[in-house]
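FYI - complex with adenosine monophosphate, inputs then prediction.
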Amino acid sequence: MQGLTPLKEAQNIVLEATQTLGLEKVGLLDAIGRVLGEDIIASRDNPPWDNSAMDGFAVRWEDIKQEHAITKPVELTVIEDVQAGKVATKAVGPGQAIRIMTGAPVPQGATTVVKVEETEPVGDTVRIFKEVERGGNIRLQGEDVKKGDCIIAKGTPIRSAEAGMLAILAKSFVLVYQRPRVAVLSTGDELADLDERFDEDKIINSNSYGIAAAVQEAGGIPILLGIAKDQPAAVKEKIAHGLNADVLVLSGGVSLGESDFTKAVFKDLGAEMNFWKLAIRPGQPLVFGKIQGKLAFGLPGNSVSSMVTFEQLVRPAVLKMGGHRSYGRPVVKAVFQEKFSKGTDRRHFLRGILTREDGVLKVRTTGGQGSGILTSMVKANCLIDVPEEVERLTPGDTVTVQVLSGQF
Ligand code: AMP
Ligand code: MG
């Protein structure tokens, strides 16, 4: 019998076979969640000019420097009132002040801004009750962004912060990596699709939707090929429709039963193929190869197995194609709350519920862990990664957890 393949080894083979896609230009908001395909070089300083950090009065620091400001306020002549979006037309001279708004350019001659709360207007003068250090309440030109600097590097995933920065830099379109197109096919005579009338003895094709959703979450574009009957010709015909996508993901038919044809079909189509019995649970035999240069995965049919193997093997490939440079979920340590035992031949991924209690991350399983129990995935916000060699866990043990969703 073929030995078990460690997951890490399979992941390395998949990632080595995976090429990052090319670039495309998209509008700023369409770039959210995508990966930047160019270095963003600042074409201007930000702030573009010295500007006020407060609503207040622009003054010469020498004029307000004094020790007993509260009892003996300085009194300056207000020579101009600059509204938002306007620029002062005058320069601040000795004994003078200009009223300005937050963000307004600092007028010529002024070296300090006194915030309005520390002043009192009297007619066309203003009393200053507090000394402010030289340069106080002034944001300097270029203190945020310097013209010519690389502000966001190629390979950065674009979040709201990057979107705001791109807007500051007047980049309404950016180059991002293309989204991988992933063709999804379910196989099995027992399956019926959502849009079909089906008999009670049929099983609804849920894998296609779970997998397509996971593709979408990883930034890919799912293409639903539907269901193929358990006949080599039927599987081949459906695969032909998927070969103009970047990746093919099949589920079902990878075991060695009479109606399992995925492996044979991959071989017939010329796939350089890896047929793995992965050393993980859940996770059955799994086929991976390239058909006409396209990555092709044959995942196990059991719903949980297909989701967990997608998570560990297909998702990293989809992320890499889309330009990402790290492919794992966030990993944390948490305190296990239950008893658990297993053999030492496989790494287990238990579906878990991660919580934070009194500042401590704790994790328990979702209950039944059978590979057909899809509710275990529905309840889970994490996968508890129990290494091959671990035989038993008891309450209080520290475990490694892959975070799938949620805030902690
Ligand atoms: P297989 O790997 O083809 O032997 O499938 C194993 C089991 O997974 C089947 O008996 C079905 O119960 C289930 N299964 C296979 N494909 C799907 C699917 N597309 N949606 C839901 N369940 C499936
Ligand atoms: Mg089957």
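The domain at 51-139 is CATH 2.170.190.11 (Molybdopterin biosynthesis moeA protein; domain 3). The first strand starts at residue 23 and ends at 27.
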